[in-house]
Amino acid sequence: MSEQLHDSEQGTDPQGDHKAERHKKAMQKQKAKVDASIAAASTERGVAVLLTGNGKGKSSSAFGMVLRALGYGQKVGVVQFIKGAQLSGEELYLKNQCPQVELHQMGTGFTWNTQDRSADIAAAEATWQHASRMLADPGYDLVVLDELTYMLGYQYLDEARVLQAIAQRPSEQSVIVTGRGGGTALQELMDTVSEVKDLKHAFKAGIKARQGVDY
Ligand code: ATP
Ligand code: MG
Asked: 58 C-alpha vs ligand 1 centroid, how far in Å?
């Protein structure tokens, strides 16, 4: 510590004191607001979260919540509606290190390239069976439906049936849906809707998808 304290540190700087006082008041006001909204949130139930938008961060956010739930020993089910050629790190980790997490992926019947609508629908339908079973089982605290929105967008799954299963899930169960779009009915149903905005993406600057970051 230098021998000579600044005026503000000595408390003899009237401007510094004023600033500190203003900061304290602003923080008190902020705390009162936060406390009031915490007190107002009195409903206790599972939450339906939609992570949408064109930016990067939807699935990885969902898997962040999987970690949160696991930290409390909760039962987690994950259903992925699009299976990439490359397994992502979180899939590898769940498969190899977390046998307590039930993970289902859409079979090889589905790819963007098959252009075989009936095969895609059959694959979507088979994958949905896992999701609908989990959504009806109060044993699951958290169900992740990764990339589900595309199944609705392409009408591979019946929207009304999907929305009904989400709406009628056990009251203590939380559900996370990821994927671009999703439609207004889904957005209305979900309790929390976050849109990840694409401001910039490394790939567009020619940077290769990175292990541990992009997959
Ligand atoms: P992540 O899994 O990284 O959270 P995401 O779920 O938001 O991404 P997806 O559309 O599922 O996005 O695509 C996953 C892959 O595509 C990731 O490798 C991600 O970096 C990449 N990606 C996501 N958004 C963009 C974008 N706007 N431009 C280019 N690549 C993207
Ligand atoms: Mg994703």
From this structure: 8
